[in-house]
Amino acid sequence: MSEIIEKTIRDNFPDAVLESKDIFGTLHIKITPDVLVAVCEMLHDSQGFDYLEDITAIDWKGRVEVVYQLTALATNTKIALRVDLDSSQPVVESLTGIWKGADFQEREVYDLMGVVFTNHPDLRRILLPDDWEGHPLRKDYVIED
After folding, report:
1. Which option is the CATH number for 2-118: 3.40.190.10, 3.40.50.300, 3.30.460.80, 3.40.50.2300?
2. Is 28 helix (H, G, I), strand (E, B) or coil?
């Protein structure tokens, strides 16, 4: 099934796929951030990916990788979409218009990693106080003594 999904993404977005690999039985596809919403809409609407399982981010020094874990519940098919963002200004489009469950997950990634999700309906801190400075899961975050 994952081969069909990868082919569908490549056919519909030929210049968007940067990398594809199987990690522990789950297809991971790295795409360009500019097509993230369009790819997710296609996966949701025509491929049955009705559940956004998780959004997380990884600080790789120089880039922030945002990882989206998707599941098609009817077939229990899983896929991970990955996008690389510039660590000095990590910005990507919100997926709240596709999956309402993206709301709090994007807020958490914003709060702890500093990723700005454009067009998010209420992007503000969710775990830390509003006056907190910085994003504590970033490698450049300094803990005061």
Report:
1. 3.30.460.80
2. strand
